[in-house]
Amino acid sequence: MSPIKTQQPRVAFSTIGCRLNQAETALLKDGFRRRGFIPVEYGQDTDVLVLNSCTVTEGAEADCRRLVRQTLRQSPQAFVAVTGCYAQTGLDVLRQIDGIDLIVGNQFKMQLPDLLPPVPQPMKQAMPHVHHERMDPDNFVHPGVGAYTTTRANLKVQDGCQFMCAFCLIPFARGRERSRVVEDAIREAEALVQRGHRELVLTGVNIGQYQDQGIDLLGLLTQLELIEGLERIRISSIEPTTIPDGLLEYMKTSRKLCRFLHVPLQSGDDTILQAMNRRYSIQEYQEAMESACSMIPDLCFGTDVMVGFPGERHREFENTLAFVQALPFAYLHVFSYSPRPGTASTKMAHQVSSADIKERSHILRELSQQKRKTFQQRFLGQELSVLFEEEVNGVWTGLTDHYLRVDVRSPLPLKNTVQTVMATGMMSDRLIGLLNTQSQSVLSRPPQVLTLVQGGTA
Ligand code: SF4
């Protein structure tokens, strides 16, 4: 009698939205692997699709619906599990979409691998199973180690927010703020470094609110800095009013904390900031930014700006434009306001036309490009430390600690190595440079191996 052939089920992941969702997908991928699944790239034939959804804009929700349909065209038998912020806030809509078998709200997201029917046959369901509840406000642990296909790895350290900005659904989608238990964050960080990741990017919704057992963000950074083999720690984004005392001083002297701050501004007009329920005035923001930039030479200071918030007339937009023009931002991320049901801003008067939103976004994006160039220019002729990521047609590309993209030509393998590069020129959004000769002799030895985890999109 011939032996029964057993086949491991395949799982594909698709992640919409923020870096925090990416960090969670990486942990989910690890969880599925430990339960016997084989991760495959999104778009390949699969037995299970995990869609980690987003609700930050209407577009993100539409993406979610499109991805479900797209997957079912490719793999009609695929078991489709939707989790993430849209699963939390859009439950009623998701229940109506054909082909979804499981809906898992954010409270249960990390348990998703255990919520599937047992392997090897997760079968399609007539009606979706739903696991949905309010989020637990306690600090948390996430077993496992995020599986990344990239050289840099995210480290989730915080979740939730209760600032209640008038445009934002996150307090509803992710619940109250809570932090990862410090020992668990350090455990995953050490494991990621052992896999060969040299840079960790701290992620969360409101990282500046990190607090566990009396340890704040600065305390966590101090502990992470002690991890041998970890070369860079980057804070993904931090709210202006939550930058802990001493963080800038620490950044100035730390050997590992990147000279990089992404501090959402949203508007450069006080009436709009107030209507948004942001917790600072433009003067306070300006003072914080100027003190950071004067304390840390070459700091990369970037921001988010939202256009088209209700009440943003021509005058308010001009105020934002003038404010952003005057300050030394390295780049801007420009977002278009879209009304999210259930948020305070949907009831506000003076909604802005989509034509105005489009035009204002265009103006700010152009300004962002100019700012990026101005920031890059300062580094011409300087030696920069670059963590290389990948090679395309003989050109290797990587990032400096101040988040400048740098390209060099090299026949030698540079992946996941940190090299000194002389910046010799600029090309659109990046610097080009030459490897210094000492780097080249070091490279004749084999680079440190990075155990990348293949399959799926993290
Ligand atoms: S600070 Fe405001 S914009 Fe940011 S997650 Fe919290 S509520 Fe949303």
Note the main sheet.
6 strands, parallel
**Can you count the helices?**
14
The assigned structural class equals alpha/beta
Major sheet: arrangement of strands: 2-1-3-4-5-6
Rg over CA atoms, rounded to whole Å, is 23 Å
Considering DSSP H and I runs of 4 or more, what fraction of the residues is helical?
Answer: 25-40%
> How many domains?
3
Which spans of ≥5 residues are poorly predicted at pLDDT below 50? Answer: 1-6, 443-447
Report the CATH superfamily of the largest domain. Answer: tm_1862 like domain
Mean pLDDT: 91
Percentage of β-strand residues:
15-25%
Question: How far do the termini sit from each other?
Answer: 42 Å
In CATH, what is the class of the largest domain? Answer: Alpha Beta
The molecules bound to the chains, other than polymers, are: iron/sulfur cluster
CATH architectural category of the largest domain? Alpha-Beta Horseshoe
What's this, in brief?
The model is unreliable at 1-6 and 443-447 (pLDDT under 50).
Characterization of the model:
With 458 residues, the protein is of the alpha/beta class. The protein has three domains: 10-131, Rossmann fold; 153-377, tm_1862 like domain (pyruvate-formate lyase- activating enzyme); 383-442, OB fold (Dihydrolipoamide Acetyltransferase, E2P) (Beta Barrel), CATH 2.40.50. The chain contains 14 helices and 21 strands. Strands 2-1-3-4-5-6 form a six-stranded parallel sheet, with helices on both faces. Strand 11 and strand 12 (215-216) form a beta hairpin. The longest helix has 24 residues, at 354-377. The protein starts with 9 loop residues before the first strand and ends in a 16-residue tail after the last helix. 44% of the residues are buried. The model is unreliable at 1-6 and 443-447 (pLDDT under 50). The site of iron/sulfur cluster has 10 residues, from helix 6.
